[in-house]
Amino acid sequence: MDRPSLEAVNRLADAARAADGVAPLSEATLLSLAAPSADGQLHGYVEGESGLDAYSHLRLEDDGTAWAEIVVHPQARRRGLGTRFLEFVRDQNPAVRVWAHGDLPPARAFAAHHGMRRVRDLWVMSRAVDTDPAITDPVAPQGFSARSFRPGDEQAWLDVNGRAFAHHPEQGRMTLADLQARMAESWFDPAGLLLVFEKGTGRLAASHWTKIAEPTSGVGEVYVVGVDPDFQGRGLGGYATALGLAHLRDRGMREIELYVEGDNEPAIATYRRKGFERSARDVMYAFEQ
Ligand SMILES: CC(C)(COP(=O)(O)OP(=O)(O)OC[C@H]1O[C@@H](n2cnc3c(N)ncnc32)[C@H](O)[C@@H]1OP(=O)(O)O)[C@@H](O)C(=O)NCCC(=O)NCCS
Fold first, then answer.
1. Domain extent for 271
2. Which tens digits make up the pLDDT trace of 48-107?
3. How much distance in Å is there from the Cα of 2 to the middle of ligand 1?
């Protein structure tokens, strides 16, 4: 299917971010525009006088689920464009889930108007680097050692990621192509992808992928922390998390943020102990069935 250019979508997303204070599209959507066209991804758009007035991205997964993002240019709102795109994605899959980044009042009103309910709550948690508890260099649990990513580690990382996130709607589905697309991004830094191995067997047990999207922003991200289920309960989650925090501190970041499911109480409790507090939330809406 025909699709707009990444540049045009970025301009629309920038205008929405300037008006709303929140970026309206996820990394996965922007990556899909940079990659060759793929099955199961539908891009809808309307052009206005000076660029795109609206854009929607719909992803139809193999298991029958679907999710979408919709953004309308601030100057083109309240003219029914959002409704038009919502009807389009709903026609493709009535069980479609729609992201609202930032949980903003317009999206809430829009969802209520269309009889949608909140089905998923994703939290953004953040902390300043120079706040308590201090970020210190962690000591590896006995029997484990850490190093950063090297070419050749791809499959071991994918295996652990798939097992650690077997029940996660997006993260557990990451393929080699998805991984390579992220590694081809300008922000990717192998030194920021920290791996924890079992000594002796050399098995990958845990990892912490950190992300610095824009070094000048001073904001680093806990991108993905995963522990192989075979190694859970041995303190590796805390160790891997601390390794990444120390890395981001050493890179001069002033603020660290992360995303976590709002109902993942153990993870939220762990991050709270490490000084993180909720700073924003993204909500997923679905139609009443
Ligand atoms: C949410 C969004 C997509 C709505 O797009 P839109 O083109 O303005 O929506 P529509 O014109 O189709 O609005 C349909 C109805 O939703 C409600 N609505 C939409 N925006 C509203 C607002 N700011 N305040 C109150 N009600 C609102 C109204 O009931 C409206 O009907 P009305 O204009 O006849 O009163 C747009 O504000 C946007 O791009 N926001 C940022 C991205 C985002 O949050 N997307 C997630 C969508 S779930």
1. 126-280
2. 998 999 999 999 998 899 999 999 999 999 999 999 999 999 999 999 999 999 999 999
3. 25
Determine the distance separating the centroid of ligand 1 and the alpha carbon of 195, expressed in angstroms. Answer: 44
Nearest protein Cα to ligand 1, atom 7: 82
Tens of pLDDT, residues 248-260: 999 999 999 999 9
Q: Are 73 and 12 in contact (CB under 8 A)?
A: yes
Q: How many CA atoms lie within 13 A of 74 on its CB side?
A: 13
Q: Which residues, judged by CB distance below 6 Å to any ligand atom, belong to the binding site of ligand 1?
A: 16, 20, 24, 70-72, 77-83, 98, 100, 104, 106-107, 109-111, 113, 285
Q: Is residue 63 located within the same domain as residue 10? A: yes
82 lies in the same domain as 153 = no
3-state secondary structure of 100: strand
Angstrom distances, CA of residue 279 to CA of 4, 124, 231, 261: 32, 6, 31, 13
Q: Would you say 72 is a known binding-site residue?
A: yes
Q: How far apart are CA 238 and CA 163, in angstroms?
A: 18
Please say whether the beta carbons of 259 and 123 come within 8 A.
Answer: yes
Does residue 119 form part of some domain? no
Residue 88 lies in a domain: yes
58 and 137 within one domain? no
Tokens of 170: 């997006």
CATH of the domain at 174: 3.40.630.30
For 89, 127, 128, 236, the CA distances from 277, given in Å and listed in that order, are: 34, 7, 10, 22
Task: Look at residue 102 and tell me if it is in a domain.
Answer: yes
289 in any annotated domain: no
Which is it for the CA torsion 183, 197, 136, 241, positive or negative? positive
